[in-house]
Amino acid sequence: MSRPILSILLVACVAATTQHVAADTPGEVRVGEILRDVTMTGLNGPPRKLSEFRGRPLVINLWASWCGPCRAEMASLERLAWLEQSRYFIVIGISTDDYVDRAQAALAESNATITHFIDANLVLENMLGASHIPLTVLVDADGRVVQKISGARDWDSPASRLLIDDAFRRAKPQRR
After folding, report:
1. Structure confidence by residue, pLDDT tens digits, 15-43
2. Strand 90-95 relative to strand 58-63: parallel, antiparallel, unpaired?
3. What is the dihedral sign for C-alpha 27, 133, 122, 93?
4. pTM score, two decimals?
5. I want to staple 25 with a disulfide (CB 3.0 to 4.6 A). Which of 16, 126, 159, 166 is the partner?
């Protein structure tokens, strides 16, 4: 092989193995960083500050009414929130819909009982890194992002419950 071709291949291999360091969305908070405080507009309840959830781990699910996979996983998030095992964390939803009425219609159709908010101005969508939805973000009791999971899941399945428990267990500081 000629030298220029080898050089191009070497550069391509290095580029392919280098981790992406730039944020995917403007102002994204990466895994390991603490979420900034914002006031969230309630869809099925009053507005709340994100900081009001500190003290307990948080499962944040970003969704939209027009997103089929998002709507498909909504029932499993509800079941997850009601499991005895889930008493140590809180599950909330954040709609990325542009229109409140469409998001509220989706909640009514799904008989949602967990607290949902709307992010029409993309503040949370960008901060949480939701370049694709559904996105579920696990946040520890101190407000630190522990893990981001893209795509729909069956959230009350044993595998998903284990994933959540492991993520929050790893996030706990080790006492000596």
Report:
1. 333 333 345 677 899 999 999 999 999 99
2. parallel
3. negative
4. 0.83
5. 126
